[in-house]
Amino acid sequence: MAVKKRFPYRAAVVACNGSCPARAANECRYGCAGCGNCVSVCRFGAVFMNENGTAQVDEEKCIACGMCVRACPQEVIHLHECANYIVVRCSNRDEGKAAGKVCEVSCIGCGICEKNCTAEAIKVIGHCAVIQEEACLSCGMCAVRCPRGAIADLRGILTRRQERR
Amino acid sequence: MYTFTVNGRTVTTQKKQSLLRFLRDELHLTSVKDGCSQGACGACTVIIDGAVCKACVPTTDRLQGRKILTVEGLSEWEAEVFTYAYGEAGAVQCGFCIPGMVMCTKALLDVNPDPTEDEIRYALRNNYCRCTGYVKIIEAVKLSARILREGVIPEKSGDDWKVGSRVHRLDVEEKVLGYGKYPDDFYMEGMCYGSALRSKYPRARVLSIDTSKAEALPGVIAVLTAGDIPGENKIGHLKHDQYTMIPVGGLTHYLGDAVALVAAEDMETVEKAKKLIRVEYEVLPAIHNIEEAAAPDAPLVFEEEESNVQAYKHVSRGNAGKAIEEARHVITQHFETPWTEHAFLEPECAVAYIDEDEDVMVISTDQSAYCTYHECSLMLGTDKVKAENALVGGGFGGKEDMTVQHHAALLAWHTKRPVKVRLTRAESLLIHPKRHHFVMDFTMGCDADGKILGVKAKVASDTGAFASLGGPVLERACTHAAGPYAYENFEIEGTAYYTNNPPAGAFRGFGVTQTCFAVETLLNMMADEIGITPWEIRYRNAIRPGGVLPNGQIVDESTGLAETLEAVKEAYDAACKAGKPAGLACAMKNAGVGVGIPDWGRVKLIIEEDGKLHIYTGASCIGQGLGTVLVQMIVSNTDLCREDIVYERSNTWIAPDSGTTSGSRQTLVTGEACLRACRKLMEAKADGKTLSDLTGREFYGEYLAKTDPLGADVPNPVSHVAYGYATQMCILDPKTGRIERIVAAHDVGKAVNPLSCEGQIEGGVVMSMGFALRERYPIDENCRPTERFGTLGLFRAHEIPKIEPIVIDKPGLKVALGAIGIGEITSIPTAPAITDAYYRFDGERRFCLPITGTPYERKG
User: Fold this and answer.
1) Structural domain containing residue B666
2) Which of A35, A76, A126, B204 is the most exposed place for a label (fewest CB within 10 A)?
3) Distance from CA of A12 to the nearest CA of B (A)
């Protein structure tokens, strides 16, 4: 670890699954545009573009300085506590039908996660699921029940890493 | 076909089901506990590919190629280390959360051999524990880490098993390694599953029940209705007003009332069959709260009663009205406390079958096997019933009533097959009796020096859909409302009302938690008005040996309230000096049920063929550690050593009835009975006989904790054989407003096992932090509780402050080596202490629990 981290450890997370190649014709207005700003501003080499051209964070290297969050024109990056490894990987705020069309793994705001959450920690706000970290028990029930695969277990246990449908 | 490995063994399955169900039902890996099946409790935590995971979450189809580890798959060395560390730290109480905690421990230490305390707390924070307050579990993780790093298991710090020794509890290993059986861990040959169809409406008349479609469903073994009950339909802990099933023509009382029972080959079929039962109701207006219940033209919850008043108590000594009139300072205030859910980790479960004597045998998780026996016998109309406790995954008062036992017994009686009846977590939240919601009006009068002259109060409680222990809870709320202070004028009037809400009954503190909040808050206000500290006003009024309580009882030499105050003095003064907001409260709590009720402790010591002394007593060990207490008492009072003694779980055919595990009574009452049996044993051994010379002999001890009834016509009635006393102090961090630490000083007479005492204190304090700050149990307009286990607001491992238990031994009680039960009092003064600390923090008085305006309040 390059920099000493303060507990509780935090890191940036990109709320976009990036299943659609960035900048394609039917591009999602809310998702990662693949501009690479985040990669350039990160001084720790913690952000990289994955095989889809979508930004992804290496939590081991990230110190949650927030530079990438500020640099992202799409506002799809936010900070989270690493201990909360269940995250929503989508920022699409369109209604279900439209959101469903642009991407295979988008959140369509169906609310199944909300119904299944034992801690009332996940809520659909503006057609997109949001996790309230303080209340989350990291059980992953939302991730397992999500019909779209929009919610991920960053450890790759309950959902496979970069799960495809 | 899904293939993965479990504890190194490759398994395949075709069925898509939750990993939890697969591990338990197919592989019988019963260390993986089913506490909620909702992803909340953490009792089913396993390790998948090195990471912790709640087994109820993933389904088998997602596990292809995964490596799954349960406690059963630990290496011998790990098993030894965790057993030692959890035992040495005193981390194991009821044990139901422990295998999950052990999994969290291993997963953390595998990647981080030397974690900080914060890292440990975070590793445990998605798993709930309701007994320990997490303190000793965190200690156990630290200790495990050290041992795993150093590779050597140290000596136990207490191993002589004498009274006063910090020995490892006798049930640590079976609970850490998960082989100890709770009822749900019994998988019997030919076992079927049972469940009740509950009422659709809180108050309705059942017009008809059609079970024909359900009976026709393949896999269904029996569908029963009220007409199938051979004995009494109405049972109950004291008052018989709890229906086993609501008959056609009868009224339902709450959403948890059973209308029909189904037994089938598997749970899926049971649930399908329940949906096929057609019940016609005439929906009637329900009673939602105390006001509606008390209204002059209120509909009746019970048609057979004259009103909705379940119990009424009036306690009066001296002349409170006159004393208050003449007092220099008078404060009157209204208080409210909420419903509280026990949230024990193990949901209710019973397995019943017909045994070789053709008796109905009930294996259950309850607070008295004899209660299960009596109530099932009453319902079956026969005494050919036996009951035995399995391990009990926490009770806190919530397992005193029948919830599943009678249903399992009835289904077994009809089907002649072993039947398991287990509540889902949602059912558990609805069905077992809760802590009473109280509304209270108190007036206190003091003289210029802060001496209490008189207290007058009126309280009302919502006791819900059946009596349970509503009457005694109300009584204890009233008798203890005066507080542990020496004054003569006290009057209280209390009423408990039936409503169509879930029932309320026993809950750690038994009504005293509620009235203590009121009287202690008043005392803090009074101290401010008079201009002395909350500590000083208590010290001036504190009951001391030989003093007379407001109930008229002269207290004995063991009375240690002043000592508990002195124990926190230094910390209190230091906090005040440092400008830290500090709140204080005291409490007293009886040990033993008292007030003239025959309160028997009975123990039988039998030397069996194995040459060992077996302890039989019908007293439930519900996680508080009674077995360990009895063994320590025997080792201290005979020439036997630990290895000579076997503690047997409570049953009703060998063990004598020793009353319910309630009222902090077992250590004192059953403890004294045990000592009496020890004396007989030692007489028999006087001529140099060894244990094996005595094979087949029984040594019986019994003790009656004799008390006077309430209102007895004697000048100084003995209401209770003993009282425990406590002072708790809450200190806030002035910057964040979070609790920095809670100091809890408890007078326990004689601590049989100080490690266990501390565990009780820490657990009780954290439980009541929830009561004070966050826990809720809202009930909607259909009388349905709306919370799930994960939203009750229970505290989690990373949120707890530093807790400093101070155990004070003060001799004086003539029985049980002076030991006074500590089970309940640990939870009583916490809420008023916390509330006062927040007043010192922001100047706002708070009279309703849970309090608002704190960092612990739930957002959103």
Assistant:
1) 600-704
2) A126
3) 19
